[in-house]
Amino acid sequence: MSEKASVQNPLIKYDKEIGWDYVNRDKAVEFRRGETGLFFYDVLKEQLVKLNPGIVDEAKADGIIKDLENVRSSIEGNSDVLRYLKGQISVYHERERREINIKLIDFENIANNRFHVTDEWQYTNGTYTNRGDVILLINGIPVIIIETKGAHKKEGIAEGIDQIRRYHRETPEIVTHNQIFNVTHMLDFYYGVTWNLDHKGLFKWKGIKDEICSQ
Known about the structure:
Number of strands: 10
Strand content: 25-35%
Helix content: 25-40%
Strand order of the largest sheet: 1-4-5-6-7-8-9-10
Distance between the termini: 26 Å
């Protein structure tokens, strides 16, 4: 049985059961406006306007999206994105003549957000092309990248971590906005934060205590 059938599809099925809307690969590329796209653009624009009434109009939303596209593909850029996600970035409000923080995620009313899951997220930067197995997006922004490995792989976790490392080297754009990475193999599910790939920063999910992976 393939990795997609044995691991990837069940993971997506679970995500759907807990409220994430599935978008197939072809539709996701359309939402991204091509394989160089970083977001579900229309979703992000709609949510920026919705979550910031009277502060962000469509023109301002376009500017914010452009700023998000232009963050550095590095740990510093990843940190800048986190500030956006936490509502720590402001825009100038003409009527009030002051800077006002904007929301990309509504942490107070979760129902105001849109949750999507998609698979086979292929990204090309003109030099390299890589493909993440599963991507989770909140309000059109990718926040979690997951590598799924089938039971037939003897070193599935190590292989998945190597792939995540390769993404950072070759296509850092694919992990600039994602804040968390996961690698799953059989019953093991490991997680860590992007741009911190030392083995001490990799943990096993759902243990009595978080278990540091020795990979």
